[in-house]
Design a protein that fits this description.
39% of the residues lie in helices and 20% in strands. The chain has 256 residues and is of the alpha/beta class.
Amino acid sequence: MTAAPESHPGPIRLVSFIIPAWNEEALLGATLDALLKAAKTLAVPYEIIVADDGSTDKTAEIGRAKGASVVAVSRRQIAATRNAGACAATGDGLIFVDADTLVTPEAVRAALSALQAGAVGGGCTIQFEGRVPPYARVLLPVFSRLYRAAGLAAGCFVFCRRDAFAAIGGFDETLFASEECALSWALRRHGRFVVLREHVVTSARKLRTYSGWEILVALWRLTRRGPRSLRDRHDKDIWYGPRRPDPDLPTKPLAS
């Protein structure tokens, strides 16, 4: 991606990667391995922060073993956990990566280039790892095009300048879902927001562990209640309920 230069507060001198995590020992190691590989291709220094939201497994231990700084959080809310990681970060460029997502060097470099060229933030193209149910293979391209047309970042990979993040107040902690959409809209009002053609690979585990009917019912309930439904945990087991075992859990890190 080539972005047109424009005026901006200054160059990005340090990139902070922020990973919100809750009981992610199964996938966090591969996520950090891919992130370290990509970060080493950058022309600026970087740091990695795992915001551990009350995990009861080895999430924090794995994070430290891979060289990440681990911040203890106890909120069980993705927006608040991401904000806690950002609060501990020291970089002027922030890249939020979900704990089940494998970044590519191309996506990370393109995100930094966009910020250096004056964008206030953005997202990228999303691909799903492994087996995807037939209904999802039909619907995912539709949702992907809708997100791109609306100029929204998918939650598994969101980047922004720290000054812009601070100016809009970070992620909205009154939201328990769609917080990445709210952040995208707020950043778009603040400056240029981009959705990159480069991709990252995120886990399809929710699509494998919840049936299409369960996901449809959950979305219908959220739609029926309207915007107020986003402001509590009710009917959000897909995001906040006990994690179901993934039948296709990889036994080794996925190739990035």
